[in-house]
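Collaboration report, partner site 2.

Our partner group contributed sequences for two proteins of shared interest, and the home lab folded both. The records are reproduced in the order in which they were received, starting with the first partner submission.
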Amino acid sequence: MISVTTGIPVMNRWNLTYFDTREFNLDERSIITSLSDLEFGFLEDGDRYQESYTSSSAHDDTSNENAIIEEEDEEKEESNHDIGSVEESNNFWENQHQLLQATLSRSSSFESRIRKATKELLKKKQLQGDLCGCGRGPVTVSSGCKNCLMREVSCHLRNEGYNSAICKSKWKSSSYIPSGEHTFLDAVDKSSSKRAGEVRVIIELNFRAEFQMARASEEYNRLVDRLPELFVGKVERLDNVIKILCSAAKKCMKEKKMHMGPWRKHRYMKAKWLGTCERTTSTPLLSMGHSS
C-alpha cells in the first residue's frame, strides 16, 4: 500500500487540526493503471500526428508527381502539335506544287498557237532592241514600257489572223477589296464548235511579277518561281491558277503571322483579269529604230 498525505484547507477553525493532515490509502495497482492510461493517451496522440503528417506528405508527393506528369504530357502535346503542323505545312505546299504543275501543263491548240506567236515577237523585240514610240526605252517587258509592248503584241497577233485586243479592267472598292484597274491582252477564237462556243485566252506579259510578295516565305517563292513570265491560257485555267496562288499567299501570311493585304486576296486578283473590261484594238505607235 502507498500512503499519500495531502493538506486540505478548511474554513472551520475548530476542525482545522483534524483536516490539516489526513492520510488517504490508495491502491498501487490503480495508480499504475492511471499512469499507463496517461502514457497510452500520449502515444495515441503521437500516432495520430504521425499518421496525419505521413498522409499529408504522401498527398504532397502525389500532387508533385501528378504535376510533373501533366507538364510532361503538355510538352509531348506541344511537340506532337509542332510535328503535326510541320507535316501539315509540307503536305499543303507539296499539294499546291502538284496542282499548279497539273494546271499549267495542260494547253489547247489555240492556247499553244497564241503562246508561240507571242513568244516569237518578244524574242524578236529583245534581239532588235527597238525603241518604243513614246521614247521610254526598248520595247521589252523589263523596260517598264508595258503599254507600247502590249500594242506591239496585239498588232502582231491580229496580223497573224487572231482576234486580239488590249483589255482594261476597272472595279470599284467594296467591303472586301479596294478599287483598282489592270491592263492586259486577250485573244478570242470564234471558230470553235457551237457546243464549245467562244473561247477567250488571257495574255499576261509579266505574269510572275503579279504574284510576287515582299517578305514571302521560301515555300511561297518557290511556288511563284514555277509560274511562267508569259502566261497564255483560257479563262478557266487562269481562274484555277489564281485560286492556287491566292490560297498559297494566305497560308504564307498565316505561317509568318503577318496581315494579308486585300490586294492579295482571291477577289482582287480575279478582278484583274476576269472582271468586266473594255477591249481596245488600236495600231501600235511607230518604232523609232534601233537603240544605240
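Second partner submission, folded after the first:
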Amino acid sequence: MFVIPGLYELIVLIAVLSIPPVIYYDARRKGKNPYFWSFAVLIGLLLNYFVGLLLVAVYFIHRDNNPNSAVALKDEFLNLFDLNERKVLECLLNHGEMNQSEIVARTKLSHATVSRILKNLESRNIVVRHRNGMQKVVRLSDDIKCFGSDRRKSS
C-alpha cells in the first residue's frame, strides 16, 4: 500500500493548530504574536513534508535508473523460497514456459517433488499450469514475469 509521505505530519499539524489557546492567552498578555509558535511549527511541518516528497522522488528515479536493480530484485524475490522452489523458479525465469518433464530434467529433481512444488507455487499464484494433451505446461503468472529475463534485458 502506498502512503502519501507527510500524512502523519498533516495530522500532527491539525493537533498543533488546535493547541494554541494557552499560548494565545500567554502571548496576548505579553503583547506578542499569539500564533508565532503555531506558524513556526506549520512551516517546519510543511518543509518536512516537501523534503519527504523530494526524497521519495529521488529514490524512485534512482531505483529505475540503476542497472543492477532488476538483478537485485530478482535475487531478493528468489530468496523468499526454499532451495528446491528456487531451482524450479530459476528454471522458469531463464527458459520461460515449459512442460513439467522438462523442469524435472533441468532441475534434476524427482517428478513427485516438482509436482508438489508446482502445486504449492500454483496455490500462491506464482505459476500457472495447464494441460496440453498428456503434458502439463507450466509458466510464470503475469505478475511474476517482470522478474524474468525480459526485464533484465530492458534495464
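Feedback sent to the partner group on the second submission included the following. Strands lie at 98-99, 127-132, 135-140. The chain has two domains: 7-65, 75-154.
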